[in-house]
Specification:
Fructose-1,6-Bisphosphatase, Chain A, domain 1; binds manganese (II) ion; 23% strand; eight-stranded mixed β-sheet; binds 2,5-anhydro-1,6-di-O-phosphono-D-glucitol; 333 residues; alpha+beta; 29% helix; D-Maltodextrin-Binding Protein, domain 2; five-stranded mixed β-sheet
Length: 333
């Protein structure tokens, strides 16, 4: 079979749909190259001195792992000089990172969760990188956080890399979802799955069950109906999976269906859920919708939420359409 590289895919996609101009192609290739570098570090583990804590905290008060910091640096450095970006924003940086004056300024803005699934780094379980691409507002001169406050529907591209038994890159530019596998010997991304589609019906759910006592009634009801199995209201048995790396859980759902939930709960009304809208929920919601699934915060479509802060958190329900619609309807009752 003829191998199609990421570059060839991007060039041909531009020819067919005119939706990947040269600057965006450069952006995607640079991000993909950075993910290759991160994958290489991940693979070294203890031999590369990448495990353990960095001894610092990020703006969200989470202890930073060495790999959180390293991955953030890799993405920043890779994307600074190309002239394709105006600014970047990251889970690991309190405020936005405008492109330094010594480089030309481009028309895109990049957001990322440099290392998703930090609690899995030290135990050799799949982790990933998530990214989202926005266009800088027309006529913008010096980028500010306000320029990033665009709903997810405005994303021009989104993707993730998963560092698992294989390293894969899953990408959408608004025309379906494609998956590339890293050929480690050649150092190239090879198209291995075209037009990924999330199966409509599923018997698998993903949620951190240890928080059950804190959930709101709609989530309690939805999960207990699944747990009731064949003789319950759903009339079938369900299976549960929770990897605790959103990237890996979403990748499973893209591959064989399922629903992923990180709901808000009763603990702290000021903190609606755990996941961040701009660089976790939005890119994943775009990918999931492009693969025929759905993504809501329990009440509305994630991609329609008008952001108010860079590190804003949202409840997340995403995956197979019928399941997301069901749990969303329970919230409305
Ligand atoms: P991050 O490592 O970027 O902070 O994200 C971790 C997120 C997400 O990947 C995962 O689904 C969730 O946190 C796991 O939460 P629990 O620790 O509650 O399982
Ligand atoms: Mn994350
Ligand atoms: Mn992270």
């Amino acid at each position: 079979m003829k191998r199609v590289s990421l570059t060839q895919y991007l060039v041909e996609e531009q020819r067919l749909h005119d939706n990947i101009p040269a600057e965006l192609r450069l952006l995607i290739e640079v991000v993909a190259r950075a993910c290759k570098t991160i994958s290489h570090s991940v693979g070294k583990g203890a031999l590369g001195d990448i495990l353990g804590s960095a001894g610092s905290e990020n703006v969200q008060g989470e202890v930073q792992k060495k790999l959180d910091v390293i991955s953030n640096e890799i993405l920043l450095e890779a994307n600074e000089w190309g002239g394709h970006l105006a600014a970047m924003a990251s889970e690991e940086m309190e405020s936005i990172h405008p492109i330094p004056n010594r480089y030309p300024m481009g028309e895109y803005m990049l957001l990322f969760d440099p290392l998703d699934g930090s609690s899995n780094i030290d135990v050799n379980v799949s982790i990933g990188t998530i990214f989202s691409v926005l266009k800088a507002p027309e006529g913008m001169s010096a980028p500010t956080e306000a320029d990033f406050m665009q709903p997810g529907t405005q994303q021009v591209a989104a993707g993730y890399a998963v560092y698992g038994p294989q390293t894969m890159l899953v990408l959408t530019t608004g025309n379906g979802v494609n998956c590339f596998t890293l050929d480690r010997e050649m150092g190239s991304w090879v198209l291995t799955q075209k037009n990924m589609q999330i199966p409509e019906d599923t018997k698998e759910f993903a949620i951190n069950m240890s928080n059950q006592r804190h959930w709101h009634p709609p989530v309690q009801r939805y999960v207990s109906e699944m747990l009731a199995g064949k003789t319950g209201p759903r009339g079938k048995d369900f299976n549960m999976r929770w990897i605790a790396s959103m990237v890996a859980d979403v990748h499973r759902i893209l591959s064989r269906g399922g629903i992923f939930m990180y709901p808000a709960d009763l603990r702290d009304p000021a903190q609606p859920g755990k996941l961040r809208l701009m660089y976790e929920a939005n890119p994943m919601a775009m990918i999931v919708e492009q693969a025929g699934g759905a993504a809501t915060d329990g009440r509305q479509r994630i991609l329609d939420i008008p952001p108010t802060k860079l590190h804003q958190r949202v409840p997340v329900f995403l995956g197979s359409k019928s399941e997301v619609e069901r749990v969303t309807s329970y919230h409305a009752e």
